[in-house]
Design a protein that fits this description.
Layout lengths: L1 E5 L6 H9 L16 E6 L3 H10 L3 E3 L2 E6 L15 H9 L2 E7 L15 H33 L2 H22 L11 H7 L10 E6 L15 E4 L1 H9 L2 H10 L6 H12 L2 E6 L4 E8 L4 H8 L1 H5 L1 E8 H7 L2 H6 L4 E3 L9 E7 L2
Helix pairs in contact: 1-7, 4-5
This protein binds guanosine-5'-diphosphate and magnesium ion.
Amino acid sequence: MQVGIIGLPTAGKTTLFNILTGAQAETHRYGAEKKEANVGVAKVPDSRLDFLSSLYNPKKTTPATIEFVDVAGLVPGEARSGGFSPSLIGALRQVDALIHVVRAFPDDELLHPAGSINPQRDTDELAMELTFADLAVIEKRIERLRADVMKKKGAEQVTAQRELEVMEKCNKALENEIPLRDVELTEDEKRLLRGYTFLSSKPLLVVLNIGESQITEPPTVGTPSLALSAQVESDIAQMPEADRAEFLEALSLTEPARDRLIRFAYESLGLQSFFTVGEDEVRAWTITRGDTAVVAASKIHSDIARGFIRAEVVAFDTLKELGSWNAAREKGALRLEGKEYVMQDGDCVNFRFSV
Ligand SMILES: Nc1nc2c(ncn2[C@@H]2O[C@H](COP(=O)(O)OP(=O)(O)O)[C@@H](O)[C@H]2O)c(=O)[nH]1
Ligand SMILES: [Mg+2]
């Protein structure tokens, strides 16, 4: 799973990327932003995993992870002159979700590329650029499909006709500035769109990068957003653990934003975790909401999915309450589930399989 971090130069993307991944990629203050992307991995914080680890004391504890890509190269106003650059679009198509970093912090010595600080404008413009990029693809596709509907016969014609209808529905939404993620689609329609990588259909989180003075009263933009000060968060991350509490309190912050942001990204991607436990390893595994037990098994090993017999499942809260796997078994809290069982967030699982 990969989350792209995008936004205008000086928004604080690379600063945020470093906080999330613990990397030390170069931020910039003067001159142009470098064009290469930074890629790094963040561990998904999960107090449940911490608890299980304290319960089992395993040799190894492995958290779920998300990959973040700091995608540079956004130039303001590009949409109006024909869209994102092809290389930027290519990079954005690869990711599963987007974090848009919007600059709200003032700094007279750090020139905003549009000449002024205006978070609402920057938020709206990026949303529009995503919409334009999708419109360009859809308009071309519609032309093609119309021709196919005229030319083709039988089943092929029916298929083309169906796809054309979905495309026209999407086209209409985009023309009304509705991103594709907000368009209601039937399962059939979703299937027809699966091969496309529309940018406005990806989950999008707006992060407002605020100045220290704005922490108590952050500005808002019309869409759901998370306000944090990348500078402050970066200072916290570099500070000895012992000094953090006092520093947070002095700024009226309850916790670093890092963990909250990673969890938010995880959830907005529709992801959830299941756990495997034991003395060797306690581990969180990533699945998508709605995944079945056999899909979960395949994340661990294809053999486990192939030879799947039953999954022994106990909810995290139950395991925590009862204190051990054996206690759960004795109390009858351990369920035996089949391949088609729909996994719940926080399930602790032991797969029985034979190969
Ligand atoms: N005052 C202030 N400066 C920041 C903040 N976040 C980033 N910066 C500074 O803004 C400049 C650009 O940051 P960078 O992360 O390179 O932005 P990018 O161009 O979006 O990757 C750097 O000099 C950062 O130190 C912030 O929250 N407050
Ligand atoms: Mg950068």
